[in-house]
Amino acid sequence: MLQDRNVLEYWRKLTAYLITLILFAILGGRYYWLMIASHQKYAEKATSNHIREVPIEAPRGIIYDRTGRILADNRPSYSVNVIPIEIRRHPETLTLLADVLNTTEEELSKTVKRYQRGMFTAVKIRSKVSIDIISVLQEHNLELIGVTYAIEPTRFYPTDVQLTHVLGYVREIDAEDLKRLDRETYAPGDVVGWKGVEKYYESHLRGERGYRYNVVNAFGQEIGESDWRKPIRPVAGNNLHLSIDADIQRIVEQGMGDSSGVVVILNHANGDVVAMASVPGYDLDVMSSRLEPEVWRKLLTDRRKPLYDRALQGLYPPGSTFKIVAAAYALEHNTVDPEKTVLCRGSYRLGTRSFGCWNPAGHGRVDLETAIEQSCNIYFYHLIQDIGLDPWAGLAGQFGFGRITGIDLPDEKAGIVPDTRYMDREFGVRGWTIGNLLNFVVGQGEVLATPIQMAQYAAIIAQKGTLYKPHLLKYVTDGEGRMVHTYSNTAHTILQLADTTWKQLHRGMNLVVQSQKGTGRAARQKNWSLYGKTGTSQNPHGEDHAWFIGFSLDPKLPYSWAILLENGGSGGGKAAPLMGKMLREIAKLKRPKG
Amino acid sequence: MPNIFQRQLRDFDWVLFLLAVLIAMAGLISIYSTTLQQEGLLERNYFVRQIAWFLIGIVLIFGMAFIPKKLVFNLAYIMYGFGILALLGTFLVEDTNGTYRWFRIGGFNFQPSEYMKIVVVITLAKYFSDHHRQIQQFKQLIPPLLMVLLPTAIVILQPDLGTALVYIATLILVLFWSGIRPLYFFLLLAPVISMLAAFNIFTFFVWMAILVLVLYIGQSKLWFAGINFFLNVFLGGLTNFLWGMLKPYQQQRISSLFNLDADPLGAGYQLIQSMTAFGSGGMFGKGLGQGTQTHLKFLPEQHTDFIMTVLGEELGFVAVILVLALFLFFTLRLISIAYSARTRYTSLILFGTASVFLFHIFVNLAMIVGLMPVTGIPLPFMSYGGSFMSTCFLLLGISQNSLSGNRV
Predict the structure, then answer these.
(1) Nearest Cβ partner of A1 from B130, B280, B320?
(2) Does A385 contact chain B (CB < 8 Å)?
(3) In the predicted model, is pLDDT for residue A467 greater than 80?
(4) Are strands A530-539 and A542-552 parallel, antiparallel or unpaired?
(5) A39, closest residue in chain B (CA to CA)
(6) What CA–CA distance (Å, rounded) separates A37 from B396?
(7) Domain annotation for chain A: domains and CATH numbers
(8) Nearest C-alpha of chain B: how many angstroms from A227?
(9) Which is deepest, A96, B186, B325, B360, by most CB within 10 Å?
């Protein structure tokens, strides 16, 4: 009944109080734990929840030639990025995106996996995207949750010279590449110099990536920039100023045409690499973005091997150009009387084997000078037997063979100068004979050299044993044009021979070009006296390689060079005339000295 | 007129009223913050609407004060009948999300299960004050049990597990307050514990041992003890079956409680975001309207079930503790005056009200910080929503109503 009295035991009230207090104590404890004890942890979580770090790519340093012309620049291009966490939340985004980008969902998710840097950081899935595609994507903005666009600087080559292997290229590193790189500095998706000076001077060229902090809502839409987390500006990389002369490089590249081979031109007065072309090259523009697998496959399987840097990695027998080594030794050590003649009948018999001269008719009686001029093999067959292998090999080493030149480019090869130890190791103590020596002296057999070594060899002779190391970098400036670093090349006397020796070598090499019987006469110039040596090196894979090395002592044109035409035929017949043609054009250029 | 006011409001408990208003203010502040970036028509604005519901609530409280207590008492079972009909009526029209919780009258959406909470309190109070002399007999406990289980069953079918639990909890707590023998109370509570314990076979065996021990100590007759024991074993076995009956999202909500990070984008998402909001709020919060979790929409249901999260993120631990204290005083005040009430009816109404509120407060505040599964229980006086807001004020109004004439 309504008016029934309330008579309740006291313990019931107590129990009710107790239960209430316990429940509130649980709540209070939990809130204390969450809001005070774990505050730090959750504060960070809340921040990463809504602040999205958007990288701003730094432009790489610009690469200039010696006269300040731009060889490699940056150009803004659009890239399409996705945020991995959003893709996971909204898988339909990929479907639509694949449609617009004309690819498959699987391809896209593979790319995301390869370049991913965490769930919240944008992963680039396509670079160099046209503005048309960007506008289509913008139209579908609302359906494409987690898709962002960025303008990023990409490499762009505003000149008509190729310079493929000198400049090299950059590439975006993926998770796989990262195993070989410094994990502190690099992250997947970073652009890194992969070949050429781009690789060698990576630390200069590479800028510092900046970041923008965008506020993101729970739907993954960016609302704007965070007002408390200030953006970090990207720092542009430093600019390289190379010794390359774009005009000379162009002459050289065009001169090479469709042949395969190398031209290296050094300024022996200061070590500058004025031109260096390994042909065929390839279009650096296709390498400047993420490479299409098909393009890459094509380059890899091309029979002319465009990816291969012949100038630094190509190992070739130097042929007759190598005779200068033996001649220098003989002159220096008076091994023979330079006036003394040897009779060349076109071939030479050693034991049961016959060794031929390039001229089967024979050169008749030749002295040292004539032997250089006309490149007589028979003379040198005699000479080497008086010198011996190791003294000869030692001098070849002093001419820079068998070790890298140390040019500022990656992955240079050293070549081979065989000596007794080398031969014993390779063939056994009894496995080789004096016959091998006859091959070596004319730059055949085991002797292998790179074109850059050959150009350096010419420079050493030109400078009478003094060498400025071949070098590409002249100086480095920062984004504001301030000088950051200057390379000062110093001369080293790496080979001390009597001045008379050098003079006689110069005379002989001068005759090669200037005399009527000289093997390099096809390179002769009007009013410009050149020094040279031709070489025709046999190789088991086909036509002979044609060499022509040489130099000019004209102080206005202090160039040393080496040209190699792979399977080009004879040095005198092919390499010398081509070099002559290029030199003629180079001489015509109006160049300030330096 | 002043006479009527004086008479009717003589026993009005102003402390309870004031606490409720303060709590509602905290709720309004939080809702205000969530609507800072809301665009659109003024009448669609949660804050404006909630103020309207708050004012209606005030009117309801005082309105209830003028209704004779006797009328409420006498109409209790009739109200119950209407309540059941209204609950069944929800099945006539399907809601937009495939449930049957709402009932539309004119332009208003009306949730009968909310009003049923009040009806359950009144009905139980009436039953136990009518039958208090007989309740030492176990069979007298059957009718109130059925009276609560009927709406519970209907609500489960809607389906609305949270509200069903409110009815059950209210029943259990009111039973305790009605003065029944502790053994009976224990035996009535036992089936619930049996079902929970059945999730783990080891716990279940321990619990069964306790049950047998209590039956022995309580000197029950063998047949009575036997029925009880086997009923509990049966219900424990039923748990697995009922678990299978739960909707996948309900299962997920329960299991996500135990492993938040297993599915950070799915069921655990709300909890992770809510806990992040609280944790990042710290001592003094990020400032009103400055909560990143709230305003960047990381927080789901922020103006309804998760309203306290907004307060925690933006005003910090200090504000949370302040509101907790208000809720605590409110609950203790209800229990206290329930204990000292002159009549059984008043005492049971007040305690029933306290039960409903305590359940809501604890479950809501525990679920938003990962102590309980997310069950869709709103926070009294604070969560946005007309039906629930007016239910809270009506409950308080019924309590005030029952207090009239409390002092002779």
Answers:
(1) B130
(2) no
(3) yes
(4) antiparallel
(5) B279
(6) 36
(7) 319-400+416-448 (3.40.710.10)
(8) 12
(9) B360
